[in-house]
Amino acid sequence: MADAETKSLWSHILGEAMDGKLKGTVLESIASEMVTWKAWREQHPDSTVLNLDRTSREYSKEFYRQPKQFVFAFMVNGKPHHCTFATMRSRPMLSLKIGDEPLLLTFDSQSTSARLYSRRLDGRELTFAEVNEGRLKDDETGSIWNRGTGLALEGPLKGKYLDAKVGVVSYTQVWREFHPKSQAIEAGGAQRGAEK
Amino acid sequence: MSGDQARRWLVVAVAIGACAAIWGIRAVGNPQSKDRQTRDATDPQPRFAPQVVVQPFPPIVDAPVIAARKVSSQVHDNELVLGVVVNGEARAYPINMLTGPMREIINDKLGGRAIAATW
């Protein structure tokens, strides 16, 4: 990427200006999700949507038909981590603790949406279990949560949101090239270094 | 291809907008941010050696949007979108519309913030 103002050259994978006046500057990443349109409009009925002319290329769930080739990737305390779509499919809810960061990685096979949340809310650590389609329950208060939005729907924490963390969908190979030390999240919740 | 070679090649590919490698939303209102959310803090000086840098395409600003409720055939149910919520405002960017080298970056405003959706 290049910015029109200074013509600096940016890596969109790193979000960082690599050359030019802004070299070394890093853009803030915002939590977003890759999800089917049906699931998005149902979760966010008041959403707006980009309306450019359609192109000939169709990107549907079929895009992920080789789930090992895709990762959901994120940084924790400056260190890269990734989880393949194959792992997330087999374990749609992974409770993680990386360093002292309690995290929840969720995946919905229908909408192919991966989300990363903090399990810490107002200073308290929460432990989640899946109760039914798209709903989570925390052990500590018994509140019921929407997995897709991180909003508590019922119980003592009703109306609260889990803090959604930044994660990106990438080709596995690309993420590894940029982050050779990235830790792989495995189905057991364990992490290990990137394969050689 | 060694790691270094591959990495160089990938940076070049991104620079010419020919490689759909990663998808996300970035805030562009605060370009002085040093908050590294996708870059490894233990890798302070990534190699950057582009072999070809093309002239940038005209930036896309003021791209049209419509309400989700008014969508009929513009977006298909099973296709992937990049969705983001900023300060309570939700917007979706259909990947189908971000394809092609001239429209892989949408400069936008949402929830009072300047953002870029990138493909």
**Strand adjacency order, main sheet of chain B:** 1-6-5
Q: Count of DSSP E strands of chain A?
A: 19
Helix-strand category of chain B: mainly beta
| Beta-strand segment tally of chain B | 6
CATH topology of the largest domain in chain A: Rieske Iron-sulfur Protein
Detail the poorly predicted runs of chain B.
1-20, 30-34
Approximately how much helix is present in the residues of chain B? Answer: 10-25%
Q: What composes the largest sheet of chain B?
A: 3 strands, antiparallel
Text of the CATH class of the largest domain in chain A: Mainly Beta
Shape of chain B: globular
User: Oligomeric state of the chains?
Assistant: heterodimer
Major β-sheet strand ordering of chain A: 17-6-7-18-19
Distance between the termini of chain A: 30 Å
Biggest beta sheet attributes of chain A: 5 strands, mixed
CATH architecture of the largest domain in chain A: 3-layer Sandwich
Radius of gyration of chain A: 18 Å
| Domains of chain A (count) | 2
**Strand residue content of chain A:** 35-45%
